[in-house]
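QA checklist item 7 of 12: single-chain prediction sanity check.
[x] sequence parsed
[x] length recorded as 159
[x] structure emitted
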Amino acid sequence: MPEFLNSSLGLKLTVKQVVQELIRFIKEDDRYHYKVTIGTDSERLPHNKADFVTAIVVHRMGNGGRYFWRRFEMDKLHTLRDRIIKEVLISIDIAKDLLEELKKFPEVQFEFEIHADVGANGPTSPMIQEVVGMIRANNFEAKTKPESYAATNVADRHV
């Protein structure tokens, strides 16, 4: 997996630098409530490969936000289930790194969620309980479609 995330300005940032940007954004205006979310989306490629994009979003509730993203390719993913499970594992992995850094700023208040690209309608519906269970087992709040905008809108934009 790549070490760097892309900013909307085209900068390559480490997780620590992303956290600094998130904290700066939150501290700019403490009148608002903030939500930090992570979501991963993927697209199947030829030869059992997939393109994965992970997004980290800081949402200033009611007043915009910022996001950072990274892309990479993986192989040996034969089924939709394989891809969805990998999406969730990738999100959980970066969420742990991100929260470890965010905990260094206890004065900053925000909600934290992992967004999964699964929903009640469509081929991923049988996987909802499994995916939500994986996320909750790692002590994170889980959101699925239609509330999973970090995966279904932001990451999807770069797949």
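[x] summary fact logged: The longest helix spans residues 80-102.
[ ] second reviewer sign-off
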